[in-house]
Design brief:
The chain contains 19 helices and 29 strands. It is an alpha+beta fold and about 750 residues long. The radius of gyration is 27 Å and the shape is globular.
């Protein structure tokens, strides 16, 4: 298949793409704002809203007690209340909601509330939660062999710890929805959500009505990155409740600052490891402790910490391992999904360990990485899944050759020894990322396909478009599978009344699942049409071809349009549904064993940085990437995802510093104090290539997922910064460096490196 323009590309660049906030406003439309807690943890003593109700423009005010159905809007477990009830558990938690004739008046009215809260002692950090055994869910362990004994018997032993901060999603389109009342107590919700079925279910639950009374719709999002997988539902529930109560359309659009305070982020993680290895740097045994800052409820933290544990090996074989995962309860906003879904937090521990081992044995980190890769007979993960295909070694070798790694390493060693205050760093790191939802039941999808009498085709599927090009790829799959031109196909908004019971567009599985479902629908229609032509012409169906809008057999040719018209007149159904479920995946949570992933996506990146050792400032000079997407469905879209994912990962690891104060308030709460990467931060030289090899598993046209894995290629930047810092010690000492490695953090690491060098 070939590169095609994103189906909304022209609309994106011309500003004509329709988002929720662009929908023309109704004359009687209402707007929502919330009153929020200003302390992290406490007992609600008084909530007087009389002045709020009397404020100009206010039409309705609700508290938890006004919810007719279930006030708990948790995605999986429990505790995520739509509005606070009895206690507050984080700064910014909504206490009540206001619907008014304008957003400005709604926000002003919220300020008139009289709120009294008896403050309680909050838990705000991972370490305080660990000390208090404060967890949102029980801890889990993966174990292979005897890690403790293997470490004690090893020639060399290292231990270290690191703190890895979270990340704000910072999608261009913030959290927003529009709810319109429907007949019989129902409601139609247009949401910026990655999970319309969850929006549908939770709105119905809050209203106390059957699910079939609620229709959830998503045409597109201006970015999601996991932040709209579970977090969008609360807005939809609030707006829907007001819509049903008032009989008016209601929009709830969070201002950016409210969004950054009230919605979950990527989890902070505190990682600790102890590793034993030989003089070649080959790991004999490893113990890891991964602790995630979950916030006050579980949200999606069960799967997120699990995935950190699943990826604590990255691409490396641990013959003896003990991996612990802890889900820490703190009185902060509940953290949630973010691109990689915990995987990056496990991988960074593995890559830090590889660097530390290399410094200890005096080898190039690349040599240590290569020596520890999965290989035949060294191919079982800590959770019991075999790594069947060993592509990573070939990818890394090809990338090292193509990027001239060895020659550049020699040049950098000479440069760093020259005495200049500028220091260069170089790192080549791999990515092995498991593809599938680790919650097995989510690995399913549906699609709906109509052919109209003029030959045009309408496509609907359960995935959501958030800029990644999912709709474009699925339309390409339908065109290829059906045998028609791409231009015939129109994709509509994702709607729960067209394709029901959908899974979220997450886990890099959007195309794998929805593309296969759409392909099944297309294959059904193709077979039906060929059978019709065969019966009409009195020939065997196996002799009929359908390609490029034409049916043919022998020297006979019929256009797609004429066959469709004839089929309609002959009362042949021109609609089909498709369904797909990923085969073979399973995982036993209690045993910590199974095969949670259908396959692994692989890749590698080489990053070169230059650091000013006097102040810690740096630039990423060059990045080379070789990434495995199987047989690419759309090379242009895939390369775009790789570039975007890498830069977003680089932001997490270098500039995006998510901070709270001692009272539990988010202080990085606006673009003024939270730095996402800009065009200036993009590597000066940025080379991306695709590793062209078919997926060994039966995915759609043997492609591979591309949404999440590239983000973790940015670990090469962080490792390159560590490499530059280590040069000040003659590469003898591995200086700890937490993430993000801001210039300030790099400067502190440089000072520690200089102190170590002076001692020696």
């Amino acid at each position: 298949m070939k590169t095609r323009e994103h189906e909304s590309a022209t609309k994106h660049v011309t500003g004509t793409a329709l988002y929720v906030d662009d929908i023309p406003e109704a004359r009687n439309q209402l707007y929502v704002a919330t009153g929020q807690s200003d302390i992290a943890h406490g007992q609600i003593l008084e909530l007087d809203l009389e002045e709020v109700r009397r404020a100009p423009g206010v039409v309705d005010v609700i508290t938890f007690d006004d919810i007719p159905g279930n006030g708990d809007v948790s995605p999986v477990h429990h505790g995520d209340l739509l509005l606070a009830h009895g206690v507050v558990n984080y700064v910014g938690q909504p206490l009540f909601a206001v619907a008014a004739i304008s957003q400005r008046l709604a926000k002003q009215a919220c300020k008139l509330a009289v709120v009294k809260i008896q403050e309680l002692e909050p838990l705000l950090t991972i370490k305080s939660a660990l000390e208090s055994n404060s967890f949102v869910l029980p801890s889990r362990t993966f174990k292979t062999g005897d890690a403790g004994a293997a470490i004690e018997m090893a020639e060399h032993v290292l231990e270290s710890e690191m703190y890895v901060r979270g990340q704000e999603h910072f999608y261009l389109e913030g959290q927003v929805c529009l709810a319109t009342p429907a007949e019989d107590g129902g409601v139609h919700v247009i949401s910026s959500s990655q999970h319309p079925t969850e929006v549908q279910k939770l709105v119905a639950s809050v209203l106390g009505v059957d699910i079939n009374r609620v229709q959830a719709e998503v045409r597109r999002m201006g970015g999601g990155f996991g932040g709209k997988e579970s977090q969008a539902a609360a807005l939809a529930c609030t707006a829907a409740l007001f819509a049903v109560r008032t009989g008016k359309p209601v929009k709830y659009r969070m201002p950016r600052q409210d969004d950054m305070v009230q919605t979950g982020k990527r989890h902070d993680f505190y990682n600790r490891y102890r590793v034993g290895f030989d003089k070649q740097g080959v790991i004999q045994g490893v113990e890891m402790k991964l602790a995630g800052l979950c916030g006050c409820t579980a949200d999606l933290s069960e799967g997120i910490v699990d995935r950190a544990m699943f990826h604590a090996d990255n691409a490396y074989f641990y013959a003896n391992s003990l991996i612990e995962g802890h889900r820490c309860l703190t009185h902060t906003v509940s953290n949630t999904a973010f691109r990689g879904f915990g995987g990056p937090k496990g991988m960074i521990a593995a890559e830090a360990m590889m660097d530390d081992i290399a410094r200890a044995v005096g080898l190039d980190p690349l040599a240590v990485r290569m020596a520890n890769l999965y290989s035949p007979n060294r191919d079982v993960t800590p959770y019991g899944q075999r790594v069947v295909h060993h592509q990573i070694a070939r990818i890394m070798k090809q990338l090292a050759d193509d990027s001239e790694y060895e020659a550049r390493r020699r040049e950098i060693l000479e440069f760093n020894a020259s005495g200049t205050h500028l220091k260069k760093g170089l790192a080549l790191t791999p990515v092995k990322f498991g593809i599938s939802f680790t919650a097995t039941h989510l690995n399913q999808a549906g699609a709906l396909l109509h052919i109209y009498t003029d030959g045009s085709i309408h496509l609907n599927h359960g995935g959501t478009e958030m800029g990644q090009g999912l709709n474009t790829k699925v339309a390409q799959i339908v065109a290829e599978s059906l045998g028609v031109n791409y231009d015939r196909i129109q994709i509509s908004a994702t709607r729960t009344d067209k394709v029901p019971n959908t899974s979220p567009t997450a886990a890099s599985s959007g195309t794998d699942l929805n593309g296969m479902a759409a392909r099944e629908a297309a294959k059904a229609l193709r077979a039906r049409l060929i059978e019709f032509v065969a019966e009409r012409e009195g020939v065997d169906g196996s002799d009929i071809e359908l390609e490029a809008d034409r049916f043919s057999y022998g020297d006979r040719v019929f256009t797609f349009d004429e066959v469709i018209k004839s089929a309609y007149l002959a009362r042949v159904s021109l609609t089909a549904t498709g369904f797909y479920r990923t085969p073979g995946v399973f995982f036993d949570k209690e045993a910590g064993r199974g095969e949670p992933f259908y396959y692994f996506a692989n890749g590698a990146a080489v990053s070169e940085v230059i650091v000013d050792s006097l102040n810690g400032e740096y630039r990423v000079k060059r990045v080379d990437i070789l990434h495995d997407v199987g047989r690419s469905l759309n090379p242009g879209l895939d390369i775009g995802q790789i570039e975007g994912g890498f830069v977003q990962g680089m932001g997490w690891l270098t500039t995006e510093e998510l901070l709270w104060d001692s009272d539990g308030r988010v202080i990085s709460n606006s673009p003024a104090n939270y730095k996402i990467p800009t065009a200036y931060d993009v590597p000066l030289e940025f080379n991306v290539s695709l590793f062209d090899e078919a997926n060994h598993q039966e995915t759609v046209y043997r492609s591979k997922a591309v949404g999440e894995p590239p983000l973790m290629l940015a670990l090469s930047v962080w490792c390159a910064l560590r490499d530059a810092v280590a040069s000040l010690t003659g590469y003898q000492i591995s200086i700890p460096l937490d993430a993000p490695a801001t210039p300030e953090a790099v400067y502190r690491a440089l000072q520690r490196a200089k102190a170590c060098e002076e001692k020696t």
